[in-house]
Amino acid sequence: MDDKAYLMNAGDIAVIPPDLKHKTSYIDETNERLCIEFTEDFIQPLLASLGNQTVSDNLFTVLRPQSENTAVMDALIKNMTIEKQTDDYLCRSFLSVYFQEFLLRIMRTHIPAEGQTVESFNSNNTIQLAVAYIDNNFQSKITLHDIADKFHLNASYFSKRFKTVHGIGFKEYLNNLRITHSEKLLLETKKSITEIAFECGFENSNYFGDAFRGKNGISPTEYRKVKGNIR
Question: CA angle, 151 as apex, 146 and 153 as ends, to 5°?
């Protein structure tokens, strides 16, 4: 928003005033965004009651839930959707009332999120964004170059920054995720070593075996025997 960037979480709300430059980028395809557009007359009662400065200071930004209020907010959105589709002389009045409550609850139950300048955000958070993507997609075929391209970074720079931030390289981090998941499958399922290797993102069972042995000191088969498979 304008010259600030925010990493938004589920439940966060961005209230954007008119003519403010903004855009949205996504880490992956699992994100969902709900947009509510409104004209000035819908916020005018709030401005008249609280004053322009109060509303500007406490509403026009990215806000995070402070308490368990999801059910109430969801109900208000549902009610607004219903009234938007209703065609009678009261629908606009109901819509206005629901929207006023929606904004007031945002101001009462949400706190402003910390934003950073776009340049600072890109520098400090790209690695965290990349890690979030890796954590959610480690079972897929992903490479260092894939991640670097996705986040518009030079692969060599990304590799160095990743190791600086996390203390281990990209490949080791990815393999550790996959092996940790494989340990669970080895103990909780009767799937074959090859099936587990593919399900965890390894290209073949031999490479999986070498990586597993490098982390645990024993093979996947030995690990299953020592730890005890499900019965």
Answer: 85
Round to whole Å and give the CA distance between 103 and 43: 9
SS3 102: helix
Q: pLDDT tens digit string along 203-228? A: 989 999 999 999 999 999 999 988 76
CA quadruple 49, 50, 51, 52: dihedral positive or negative? negative
Q: How far is CA 193 from CA 137, 176, 181, 226, in A?
A: 20, 17, 13, 15
Contact 158, 151 (CB under 8 A): yes
Residue-level pLDDT at 150: 86
d(CA 178, CA 211): 10
pLDDT value, residue 198: 94
Contact 185, 200 (CB under 8 A): yes
Q: What is the DSSP letter of 41?
A: G
As given in the structure block, the two tokens for residue 130 are: 């990349």
Give the model confidence (pLDDT) of 96-139 as tens digits.
999 999 999 999 988 988 877 665 555 557 788 888 889 999 99
Neighbours of 80 (CB within 10 A): 20
Q: Which domains does the chain have, with CATH numbers?
A: 4-114 (no CATH), 119-227 (1.10.10.60)
